[in-house]
């Protein structure tokens, strides 16, 4: 799936492959490189083969200050994911953050506030694409959640196969859209229902719950809560457990479980984009976003 088609020239320029040792396919030392495999990535996404786990890549999100999912960041994530999917030396990805205390602050509000319909449509298509790419990935995708993870950050986490959360009370996770005066789209809702069940999801969505780690574990929005300094090692050991399963059988099973949910969006992607553009363009919604952005600014004092 050529994802770079239709990208804005700036974005395409941003994503020129970094200098790499010729012939260094991801996961394999380049001929004569001598110093092992090379990382690759782009300004906001660093992908490093895990030196302790063959076939595993660690994808570090580094879009400071809060890993907000801007269009450029989404595009870089998509292209990095596509590269990993296409490189058969990789069987698993650990997604984590390089921004201290924050996994991802979710969708970038400035991509939805004060923007024209064409931009909102382009942005929403990229949001859809990231979800589909992660949710349906043939790779094992493990979230090493080392920071707060509201809304879009929670969706990214829920789209992984397994979630390890650092036991820091500040690292809340949840679909908090109602607190902003907006709503989670049906496919965000579907993933939450699939993960924590209908009643728990209904309550959490309406109240915009951000679950602290202990509650997140209890409700099932994450699979494991560990001390902060054990998140990456725990993710790695869980990855080994999942990679012990033959890929083809696991991939077919993942598809069996997840395709009905993904199909609900795939069958109506354009309508979903139009619904988003209509909804986000409403004066009342733009006002809500303005109020929320002002609150964020005032918070800084
Ligand atoms: C019929 C219906 C059809 C469908 C309808 C669909 C409807 C729309 C779909 C909407 C789905 C939305 C999903 C989302 O993800 S919305 C975003 C939700 N995110 C949040 O609520 C998090 C907001 N941020 C925070 O709470 C804090 O920033 C955080 C705890 C993450 C970090 O706090 P900290 O104190 O460390 O940092 P600051 O708050 O000072 O932030 C630093 C700067 O970053 C800016 N910022 C923060 N979050 C965002 C964001 N999500 N987008 C853009 N910018 C963000 C913040 O303003 C600061 O900026 P400045 O330094 O310039 O002041």
UniProtKB/TrEMBL annotation:
Transmembrane region(s): none
Pathway(s) served: Lipid metabolism; fatty acid beta-oxidation
Signal peptide as annotated in the record: none
Keywords (A to Z) from UniProt: Acetylation, Fatty acid metabolism, Isomerase, Lipid metabolism, Mitochondrion, Transit peptide
GO molecular function: delta(3)-delta(2)-enoyl-CoA isomerase activity
Pfam family, any one: ECH_1
Subcellular location(s) of the protein: Mitochondrion matrix
GO biological process: fatty acid beta-oxidation
Keyword Lyase: no
EC number: 5.3.3.8
Subunit structure: Homotrimer.
Protein family membership: Belongs to the enoyl-CoA hydratase/isomerase family.
Protein name: Enoyl-CoA delta isomerase 1, mitochondrial
Source species of the chain: Ursus maritimus (Polar bear)
Gene assigned in the entry: ECI1
